[in-house]
Structures are given as C-alpha cells and as structure tokens.
Amino acid sequence: MGNTASLPSDLSQVQPVKYQIAIDFGTSHSGFSMPLPELSDALTSGTSISDIGDVQRLNLTRCVKYKSSWPGSTASYPKTRTALLYHNSGRIIAWGNEACTRYLEMCSADQANHIFIDKFKLLLDTTNKIPNTGMERLKARFNKTPVDVISDYLREMAGTIREFIEEPNPNEKWNPNHTRWCLTVPAMWSDVAKLKMRDAMFKAGLIQTLNSDRLEFCSEPMAGLIHETITVDSMSTIHKDDPVLIVDLGGGTVDLTVMRMCDNGFQELVEGSGATCGSTLLDTAFIAMFKEAIGAGAYQRIISNKPQHESTIRSSWEFCKLAFTGTEPNFRTKIQVPAPLERARVREDLDPVPGTGGAYFDEGDFYITYETMELLYAPIVDNVHELVRRMIRECKEAGVDLRHIYCVGGFSQSRYLINMLRRRLMEQYAKKVIVSPNGSSAVVLGAIVFALRPNLLLHQIARVTYGTTVRTTYSESRFGPRAAVRARLENDEDGEWIRGVFSVIIRRRDKLVPGTVVATKVYWPSSSSQQKVVIDILVSTDCPKFADEGGCRQIGSIDVAVTPCQSSSKRDSVKVTVTMQPSGLLFSAINQRTQAYTQCHINLYE
C-alpha cells in the first residue's frame, strides 16, 4: 500500500478531522452513525480518556445520530438494503431499499435493460462459492470487480451522509477529507479482504490515500460487545475480565470472536472463526422450496414476467421467520400465493408437497408447518452449533473459562435459532447464552464508540501465517540432506544458497498489538539494473519450510522502488516494516542507503 498523490506531511493541520462516521457495511443491510457531543464527553474524564470499564452505562440512541428512515421503506430501521440497480449504460439508477423496490416494480422488458445486484459483500471472501448473477453481468458488460461495486455503493451512501449532515444545518458543508471513518468488517475476514475494502473506500473518494490513517476497521463482533458493555439497554451481566464468546449472526455471515474487557480496552483471547451461513441463506432455501412446490418452470416463467410476485412471497416469508419460535409443535402459518402462481400449480389443496416437511396449498395460500421450518433451518442451526462448539473447544484448550455466549446481529432476533442453540449446547454453556435486545442496531452503535476510541483493541490473534519467499544460505541442520533439496540449491562466489524458502512474517495465533511493529525484513535487488524489488506475500495455516508446501497461497506482492547502480556492491538495501493496526497490516519501506522512504505498493490477487 502506498501514497498515490502528493499530500502535505501534516494533513491534520491542513484538513483537520471534524467528523467521525461509522459505517456498518453488511451483506443484506448497511447503515451509518455519528457521535453527539454527549458520547465524546462520556468517554473522557476532564482532559483525560476514561477507562472503558469506568464508563457509565449510556443511552446510546440518545448519544448517537443514525438514520432510521430510509427511502423505499415505511418501517423504522437503522439500515437500508445493501443493493444497487444499474442501467445497462452503467449508470446507477437506485441504491439501498429503492434499488430492490424499483427493480421489482419493473416489467420483464425493463428488467432486461437493468442490472440488479445484492449480497456483493460476500464476494470479498475468496472461499465463498455462491454465484452472483448481477456480478457476472457487471463484469461481462463493464469489467467491474467486487471492489468497484462496493465503491459505487459507498459513494451512494456518502451522498446520503452529506444530506444527513447538511439538511438540518444549511450552513454546514460536509467534506469527506475532514472525516475519520470506521468500517465494520467480519472477524473472519482476511487482511486481503480488508485491503480490498480500503481500496473501495479510496475509489469512492472517501479517503485520499490507500494507506490513510483516517480509516479504521472494527470487527462486527467487537462492535456488538462494545455496545453491550456500555448501553443501558443491556440485559446481560457482563463484567470486567469476563471472557465472552461473541456470536455475530448476520445476513450473510456468522462471526465468532472471544474477547475480554479490561480497564482500558478489549483483548482477543483465541483465534476467531466464522462461516457464510447467515439469514439470507435461509431466505434462498425457502424460495427454492416454494419454486419446486409451484413447479420450477412455471414459477420461473411467471416471476420473469411479473417480478413483483416474488416480493409479495418474500414479505410473507419474513413474517413466518419472525413468528416461528420452535415452542409450538402445532405451528402453522401461511404464505399468500399470487393469483398467477396459484393458477399454475398442479397440486391439489391439502396435498402435502414432497420434501417440504408437510407444507401444502389450500384456497390460494401455501401453508408452512413446524416440520417445514425445522427442515429449512436445519443446515444453518447445524453450522452455527458446530461453530460455537468448536470455539468452546478452542477456549478449553487455551485455558479460557467462558462466562458468556453473547449473540448479536439481525439474525440473533430469531428465537428459534437461539432456542435451538441453547438446546444443543451442554447445560453449562446453554445457560450462558444471552441475546442483544438491539440485535439490528448494536453493531452500528458500537462501531461509533470504536471510531472515537480505536485504541480499545488491545490485541488480537493472527488467523493465518504470513510470509515471503526468500533465498538464503543452505544449512543441512535446517533444510535436511543436500540430496533431498538438490533442485532448490544454487552456488555462486558468495556460497551455497537455497531458493523458495518460506520466511515467516507473522505466525498463526501470534498475539498482535495494534500500533506495534510485528516484523522487519531487509531485501536486496538480485541485479544492479533493477528499478524495483518484488516481494511475494504468502499465507498458510501452517508454518512450512518452503513456499510451495503446507498449503501456501500467494495473496499478493509488494513492489518497492530502488535505484539502479553500476555495480552489485552498491545495490540499495530496502528495509520493509510491517505494523499491525486495527485496519490490518501496514507495510512501509525505507532505502537504507539514502534513508529515503520508498513507495511500497501491495498488489492483491484473487
């Protein structure tokens, strides 16, 4: 990462920070928040910063400004849809709730001239294999990447932020260059995904350089925990020094982190985890079941002609999700079937649809039973339980005595999911499960506290091993007999060397303290004519001896500028320093001969 423009050395003097803004960028919904003076005052004591453990419980909804009324929805909600609607020309027609509403209101001919896309946050997770038709069309037509789409969305949100700030204060002129940002990200995300989010913020014009210090990332579970520990709405008894397993149940992902609140911040205690198994997957499973119940061909034909019908079905389904608790064995609720779909179905009334847990049609409605809901929820319940069980095991092995299992996020409001989690866990852990009363807003409210106090993250645990490929002196005690590594060996006047060695920068499960240097490495050009040194960046879940072993994967490279010279003895040496920040790993480089900082740019690979 590196500067892409010439800026003043002391940006704070020329463009001082006037605004702190947190964005909760979610798979299905996103929102933003800003602090009122009462929040800043509460986090300080006189002229000093208060210990977080000493902060009095606050009514965060009165200390934080956030938008709860969004175009395209009549309900009060702290977020809008994470969705975009493009015209075939590439122009953005609508975003948020309105993108979905306008697309569904179009006839099929108009839809053919537009591209609707949602769930694009999942595309930053390289392990996610869920297809996204909108992304495929945008890539084919405009060569857009997921980062481009996210930057488009952030740019649209920035326009709403401007209106939110300026409309009540006509003399106020918001400038993103005077803003410090905090973005929430899944704890399961790699540093590569965070770097892509940073790139999206830069492309959206919200930060001036790729390595801007005016962008911080806060993990979604941590934002939820911050909210729980200082809000008056808390229903829990989380105390200082209590180890807490935070389970962030979101629209697209389930994120798990174990943290402990100390006097001056939060410590991550074991390696976090997560998976793509949020509430949107439940929605997808239901639509697939309903489509088969009607008849896939007929359903597709009718919905293609009149997409609004699927919106009606989804609205009924949302009610079903909220109504189902799992405590009523005779549970039964209905989905209103639009008339064209009702006429197209071939099954008789009251005839159970195979593979649906006993769901059936009756006089224009599709009735869902307890068994239907169990069937739809089963894969998600299995995944969430396994993730929690695995984290409990990790805590036991690390000697961490969990006091609470704190569930946050929009999907945490599913009483059935929480009830099933309690039922499956052993009694000693089931009674530790607590649920945020503000599941949908907890993260966006907690994130603005982190924006004001990014030093609240005291340390976190590395999830992978980072390294580079180097050539180093051969040693039999380190690399084994020559015969076993002969293909890697080479000799010159300086001695015997071995190529392709994995040189560790950060080890998996290392404790990383933000603001500290975690590694320094010195590199030389291989020839005197080189203008840059290219350093490969690799990750592995193990700590292999060689870069082509142990599941190593190259995720990018660092290009460091050097000055060509006349002889090899005068080659520049470059010292690369890796610093840990809440926003991820920051790389800087200095030419040790001239003491001049050199451009250090990260090229990320998919």
UniProtKB/TrEMBL annotation:
<keyword id="KW-0547">Nucleotide-binding</keyword>
<protein>
    <recommendedName>
        <fullName>Hsp70-like protein</fullName>
    </recommendedName>
</protein>
<dbReference type="Pfam" id="PF00012">
    <property type="entry name" value="HSP70"/>
</dbReference>
<dbReference type="InterPro" id="IPR043129">
    <property type="entry name" value="ATPase_NBD"/>
</dbReference>
<dbReference type="GO" id="GO:0140662">
    <property type="term" value="F:ATP-dependent protein folding chaperone"/>
</dbReference>
<dbReference type="InterPro" id="IPR018181">
    <property type="entry name" value="Heat_shock_70_CS"/>
</dbReference>
<dbReference type="InterPro" id="IPR013126">
    <property type="entry name" value="Hsp_70_fam"/>
</dbReference>
<dbReference type="GO" id="GO:0005524">
    <property type="term" value="F:ATP binding"/>
</dbReference>
<keyword id="KW-0067">ATP-binding</keyword>
